[in-house]
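[RESIDUES AND BACKBONE]
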Amino acid sequence: MPCYRCGARQTDPIRGASPWKRAVRKERQILVCPECQTIDGWTADLDHCTTCRSSALVCRLGEIECRDCGHVRTAERTGDTLVPSGAPGLSEEVEAALSRVLRRRAAPT
């Protein structure tokens, strides 16, 4: 899953806690890369807990849970996936990578 703001994809994890943050936006789980977390007000367009107003939410199995106060509610929105505009989806990235590899192998040496 890419960063919802810039479209960057996570690389192989390094030991320790990930610098990427999970959050909920429009009732969908998203990831925020470390660079986008440095932007002032980066939590403003995230969903917030209806009880404590925290943006530390996780979405799983149709429920949204606040990691700060523990409040759980049912997610109302289903269906579409959030992908940053202009950012290629994973299938497009895989297709491009396969095209590059197959062209190199198909060329006479």
